[in-house]
Every structure is written in C-alpha cells, then in structure tokens.
Amino acid sequence: MNKSLTILTIFAALLLSCTEHDEDENSFSSEADGPEKMSVRYAALPKITNLDPKLNYEFSYNQGNLTKISGKIKTFAGFDVFLIEPNSILSYNNNLVTVENSEIADNNIKRIIYTMEKGRPKKAELYDGNNLLFSKKDYFYEADKIVVSEKMYTWEFYTTYFFDSHKNLIKAEKLEKSGGIDKKLTTTMYLDFDHSKNPYKKLYLANDNFYEKSLSENNYRKIAYTVKDLQNTQFPPGYGNAEWTYSYNSDGQIILYFQ
C-alpha cells in the first residue's frame, strides 16, 4: 500500500514537468459554468494512473448546468486506458436530474435519477444495465455536516462528511453494514487545502469522486485514512495516505489541462 502511494506522489510531481501551456487559457475561472476540460491525471486523483496527462475529460453545459461528460478510464490486464467515446448525458426535468451512461459503469450503474432540493441532491436511485433499481441514496444536511445513507442489496453504507469554518471538507466517516451488522469503518482526513476556486463545483453529479471533491470551497491535496474491521477488533486498523500537487496560474487558480 505504501509503495503504491509513493508512486502516486511521483506521478503527481511529474505533472509539473508536462506544463507547456497557456496558463490563463487552461485554468478555471468561470462562475457560470464549470471547466470545459480536465486532465485525466487530475480527474482520477487520488487514484494512481500513469496515463498521459495531456488526455482530457471534456464537459458541456447549458445555462450553467452540466449536460455531458466525455471520457472514461478502463483497466485492462492491470493497465489503465483512457477512452474519450464513453459519455454520460445529464437531463433536467423540474426537480429531477437523470444521468444516463452510454456504457455500464464499473460499479454496475447505467442510470441515476436524482431528486433535487434547493440545488442539492435529496435522493438518488441507481439502476443497472437491465433497468433494475439496485441502490438508493438519501442525503441529509446540517450546518457543518452532510450524511449520505445508501442501501444496496443486503448492504448499507452511512457516510458522514464534516466541514470546518472555511466550508472545507475535513473528515469523512463511512460505516459499512451487512445484514444489520457493522462490518467496517473508514475514516478519511482531508488536508493541505489551497486557496484556488474549486473546479469540481459543477461536476458533483458526475460520479462519487467528483462529488467528494466538489464539497469544499477550495481543493485538498492530501488525504490520510484508517480502516477498522469491526468484526475483528483484535486486529490493528489499516491505514494509508496520498498527496499530490496542482499547477497554478499567476492568479493562483488551478491549471486543469496541459498542451
């Protein structure tokens, strides 16, 4: 685990050596829309990938709403491959947002229907390739906390996100249950925030990774986590961490893709 995380740090550092770019053109500054492109390396973090950082996810918007995401990482025989053709289309109807994937996602999701309230998800229904509902999520909001509960087959997941006074995510606790029995508790700390605008704010319905990144006002550059086996408490918890760096333009905003 530690070896892989060290590799992540090395790959993140390599991003700095690939920056032949126009800083202002490639950075994020729009309030109305989100970014049009994002390097696959940045989009995948904290996942480790050695893909060419000049490969980009692409995003489209209509009246400030995300309408299309193009790009997908697939793994074949242990190697990551980036394909631009797979996409997700987002459609809006009153308080419902439907995310339709052109391919079945790795987590078996073909379609998600979100029920929105005050511009935030209130409920999500996840459907598989056979159009069968297999998971439901409910979202609960407090002043400095968000709780997401999910039921999937016999499994239940309860994730609580905690925020500081700067509206940045500082901790997440995820409890996994099966058959009503506590199985695992994962605690993640989010560290080393920058002062750049968060480019993931409009991308929160794209996937779970973007959702988590979108929650903060700024951008974390390090995570540290522990995993407790609640059925075998005699064993010490597992742990790990990952950290990376971003490139910034002269205004201190993240440079999202490379030319």
Summarize the structure.
With 259 residues, this protein is mainly β. It is built from 4 helices and 14 strands.
Question: Mind describing the biggest β-sheet?
Answer: 14 strands, antiparallel
Query: What best-fitting shape do the alpha-carbon axes yield?
Result: globular
SSE string, helix = H, strand = E?
HHEHEEEEEEEEEEEHEE
Number of helices: 4
Cα separation of the termini = 32 Å
**Strand arrangement across the biggest beta sheet:** 1-2-3-4-5-6-7-8-9-10-11-12-13-14
Low-confidence regions: 1-25
Mean pLDDT: 88
Please give the share of residues in helix. 10-25%
The amount of beta strand, in percent, is over 45%
Structural class: mainly beta
Number of strands: 14
Radius of gyration: 18 Å
Characterization of this structure:
The protein has 259 residues and is mainly beta. It contains four helices and 14 strands. The protein has helices at 2-14, 23-26, 40-44, 208-214, and strands spanning 37-39, 56-62, 65-76, 79-93, 96-101, 111-117, 120-127, 133-142, 145-152, 155-163, 169-178, 181-193, 220-229, 238-243. β8 and β9 form a beta hairpin. It is globular and about 50 Å long. The protein starts with a helix and ends in a 16-residue tail after the last strand. Residues 1-25 have low confidence and may be disordered.
